Amino acid sequence: MHSNHLLLEEPIRMASILESSKSTFFPAMSRIVGTLGINSQSVETISACLKAGMSVARFDFSWGDAEFHQKTLENLKIAIKSTKKLCAVMLDTVGPELQVVNKSERPVSLQEETLVVLTPDQDKEATSNLLPINFSGLSKVVTKGDTIFIGQYLFTGSETTSVWLEVTEVNGEEVVCLIKNSATLSGPLYTLHVSQIRIDLPTLTDKDKEVISTWGVRNNIDFLSLSYTRHAEDVRHAREFLSKLGDLNQTQIFAKIENVEGLNHFDEILQEADGIILSRGNLGIDLPPEKVFLFQKAAVYKCNMAGKPAVVTRVVDSMTDNLRPTRAEATDVANAILDGSDAILLGAETLRGLYPVETISIVGKICAEVTPFSYCCKEI
Fold first, then answer.
1. What is the pLDDT of residues 243-278, one digit of tens each?
2. Ordered DSSP codes for 302-335
3. Are 26 and 357 in contact (CB under 8 A)?
4. How far is CA 133 from CA 41, 89, 103, 141, 178, in A?
5. What domains lie within the chain, and their CATH numbers?
6. Which residue among 73, 108, 146, 154 is the one 20 to 30 A from 44 at the CA level?
């Protein structure tokens, strides 16, 4: 008997997988946005990041003061001159972000199955059973059974550095929660996210306006990343504010979609914005994990059809502490580009990660490897 051979059209030769990576005729068509900060502030490190493939530097004002970010930007300018690599500047707003404030900066250990109280009294010290927050209205919007998530800088999801809470009681302005997993919170600020609850704060806060009109104008920023964009009106308001500043009327606004409210108004937001950032860290809290990929694929497709850049975040979280990404992460980067993403945004990995340069380099290599293959896919 003759065995039946299944003939497959090969979009890429299997043998090429074993070839060493090298610069090809196809340059990487996607861009890498690197967040500069604690572990990526020196001229030497920034220069290496530029050489590795970073073409947009992101300055996240959720932490650090204007003086710190100005020092980083001055170092970026020196690095640009020495490397002769162009790099745009993106200012990332804080927006209506809820934060746990730890003035002492001492690590706070939280024990599973114990209670912790969230209080709007920021004068109190953060302890294992009391966490001060920057929002007095939390008790008005949560009810018993609601889920609250607390983590350091855009949620790593690590069970040791982030914590799930379940609301058990609302007592005046204080919210009592049951701790669902043991964790240690370290540093002065942690982000707090309440799943699928609308926070009644302006998207462009007074603090954001002050930073944009001072630091942003002084440095003639190229992009404004509008955190927690929930409606098209948020983008229109931001654009109106920029136009009044004069110097920033050419600044592009990238709407950051971070919750269900932004997802529900995605089409209108896309019409108004210059680009979209899919903030998968926060979306992964608001949406069930199995739904995040559906939104990503739909949103990237819509951005492609509208001719507007789509930026994907949270791709190589493990490289915050490790020299290599997981296989799943490497594949995730490639699939994001194959789906039509125009840029990869690196947050904690380059901000406070141990290997900012290596992270940019590896993500860049994956993007370059994908580029010719994406052309093949489009032709088939």
1. 999 889 899 999 999 999 999 999 999 999 999 999
2. HHHHHT--EEEE-S-GGGGT-SS--HHHHHHHHH
3. no
4. 29, 30, 11, 14, 17
5. 25-96+201-379 (3.20.20.60), 98-194 (2.40.33.10)
6. 154
